TrEMBL record:
<dbReference type="InterPro" id="IPR036909">
    <property type="entry name" value="Cyt_c-like_dom_sf"/>
</dbReference>
<keyword id="KW-0679">Respiratory chain</keyword>
<keyword id="KW-0349">Heme</keyword>
<feature type="domain" description="Cytochrome c">
    <location>
        <begin position="47"/>
        <end position="126"/>
    </location>
</feature>
<keyword id="KW-1003">Cell membrane</keyword>
<keyword id="KW-0408">Iron</keyword>
<feature type="signal peptide">
    <location>
        <begin position="1"/>
        <end position="30"/>
    </location>
</feature>
<keyword id="KW-0677">Repeat</keyword>
<keyword id="KW-0813">Transport</keyword>
<protein>
    <recommendedName>
        <fullName>Cytochrome bc1 complex cytochrome c subunit</fullName>
        <ecNumber>7.1.1.8</ecNumber>
    </recommendedName>
</protein>
<dbReference type="Pfam" id="PF00034">
    <property type="entry name" value="Cytochrom_C"/>
</dbReference>
<dbReference type="Pfam" id="PF13442">
    <property type="entry name" value="Cytochrome_CBB3"/>
</dbReference>
<comment type="subunit">
    <text>The cytochrome bc1 complex is composed of a cytochrome b (QcrB), the Rieske iron-sulfur protein (QcrA) and a diheme cytochrome c (QcrC) subunit.</text>
</comment>
<keyword id="KW-0732">Signal</keyword>
<keyword id="KW-0479">Metal-binding</keyword>
<keyword id="KW-1278">Translocase</keyword>
<feature type="transmembrane region" description="Helical">
    <location>
        <begin position="242"/>
        <end position="261"/>
    </location>
</feature>
């Protein structure tokens, strides 16, 4: 007992106990931690990148370069992130049929699994915006009125007040937002495709993006007949007043000319 008591009072006793405790903690963590799951996720990601590289070599390398460095026919993809790939390929804009002022939306030729693989490969070339999750793009509970304010401030100049799109300069245009999925709306705001400016989370937080998505869905949801007849692009009183002046006043002038001509003809006869 005296020997044991002496060992407990030894200056290194506390250090030995601490080391034993750390060793025990490390052993228990190694035994119960989900290392297998993490390793499986890492393996799956590596396989996705490998498969994505094969798809890239066939469908993208001719324009964007074998390593995504870009060529005279296509920009560099280093740092564009998985969100950009998911948007461009998921809307059929890429692969592009031919170069032009703006690449149009068309039929998607890749499955979502293949798009995810392409996105994984491009993301491995350099850090960039990440494909959003379902919860990030879900507009449930968002403020539609606030979204309308944000949309009119940042988007209506090109996309129209109701997201119907419009012409820009040099053959470019802002596409209609009708039928665009919440994920692609979110990714477009994240990445700023083609002529659109980007709105990262530092500029436009996730909540504000959800508000805008909710507004776009509200104005492009159930289409109803305009009480005034033609919607005239949804531009409001400006276009409606112009229509009234040009066609309404024009019709009145035409009728006045016709009446005057027939009156003069009647007098002569």
């Amino acid at each position: 007992m005296k020997k044991l008591s002496a060992r407990r009072r030894h200056p290194l006793a506390a250090v030995v106990v601490l080391l034993l405790a750390l060793a025990a903690t490390g052993g228990l963590y190694a035994a119960f931690a989900p290392a297998g799951t993490a390793k499986a996720d890492e393996t799956a990601q590596s396989l996705a990148i490998e498969e994505g590289k094969k798809l890239y070599s066939v469908g993208c390398a001719s324009c964007h370069g074998t390593g995504g460095q870009g060529t005279s026919d296509g920009p560099s993809l280093v740092g564009v992130g998985s969100a950009s790939v998911d948007f461009q390929v998921g809307t059929g804009r890429m692969p592009a049929q031919q170069p032009g002022a703006q690449v149009p939306k068309k039929k998607v030729i890749y499955s979502q699994a293949e798009i995810d693989q392409l996105a994984a490969y491009v993301a491995s070339l350099g850090a960039g915006p990440i494909t959003p999750t379902d919860s990030q793009v879900d507009p449930a509970g968002a403020d539609v009125a606030k979204g309308g304010e944000l949309f009119r401030t940042n988007c209506a100049q090109c996309h129209n007040f109701t997201g119907e799109g419009g012409a820009l300069t040099h053959g470019k245009y802002a596409p209609s937002l009708e039928g665009v999925s919440p994920k692609h709306l979110y990714e477009a705001m994240q990445t700023g495709p083609q002529n659109m400016p980007s709105f990262p989370d530092t500029t436009m937080p996730e909540k504000e993006k959800k508000d805008i998505i909710a507004y776009v869905q509200a104005v492009n949801g159930e289409k109803t007949v305009s009480p005034g007849g033609l919607s005239l692009g949804g531009l409001g009183p400006v276009s409606e007043g112009l229509f009234a002046w040009v066609f309404g006043l024009g019709a009145l002038i035409a009728v006045a000319i016709w009446v005057a001509a027939h009156t003069a003809k009647a007098k002569k006869s």
